[in-house]
Design a protein that fits this description.
The chain is an all-alpha fold and 307 residues long. The protein contains 12 helices and no strands. The protein has one domain.
Amino acid sequence: MINIDPVAIAIPVFVALIIIELLAVRFGARGDYDWRDTGTSLAMGLGSTLAGAALGGSLAGLAVWVWQNRLFDVPIAWWSFALCFVLDDLAYYVFHRSAHRVRWFWASHVIHHSSQHYNLSTALRQTWTGVFSLGFIFRMPLFLIGFPPALVFFCAGLNLIYQFWIHTEIVGQMPRWFEAVMNTPSHHRVHHGTNPRYLDRNYAGVFIIWDRMFGTFEAERADDPPRYGIIRNLATFNPLWVAVHEWAGLARDVMTARSLKTAWLAVAAPPGTLSGETADMLRARWQAGAGLPATPDGPAGSPVPAE
């Protein structure tokens, strides 16, 4: 079972669901599609797939090497699959949080946030530089613990498949028990929002419990609907520039830095540090302007009603 690539099997389903959602939106369902934006997202998805095929072998080799030096022997069984799935999702949370808090990782991850639209095609807007940015290091502890690489890659594929369906505006809120435990379209719309209260919130892949546990959860508010995109939205649909624009900015800031400290901040500090536009700064200014207390979770608001 675990030698099967679940993402490859799911791709035709992804395409079919995008078509269904597009038709639903055309007939009045909540949502928004722009053919240029969707084309860019599909191009980014194709490029990401090709990059993964070209470089995946080296990543798999590294995973096998780490596993060969494992601390424990973890058998392939139902309980090890369940444990691996949960721990892999925790590793994804750590990666995802780092991808928003460290500019080096953000330079690769920002591609996924660059669309000003939120629909199923946005889920396919993936980076071409994931291996270069070293995002894979966050899963390496799983191999060191002793989980076989094939099992980890299978769980990672299932995680990615789960995240596809949460990129939609058609679904309002799920039942409360589901919203309490699982990542949902409502939670992930918050994550893609550029509203100050939503910045750097809801990093979950599958289980929203990580955000609740580590203080990064924010509920979607009816009085503050998410505005999608990035702080400085791109003025182009060119896939190549979408793929490298933040790397270009990072390189420029390093080359023009007047000290090693500034160069280090350009690479390792939160995005927006040098321009004074980090998520924390923007949230603090918003709270101060609105006369609100500077709390990590922001002020209370009107939750989106459950359906």
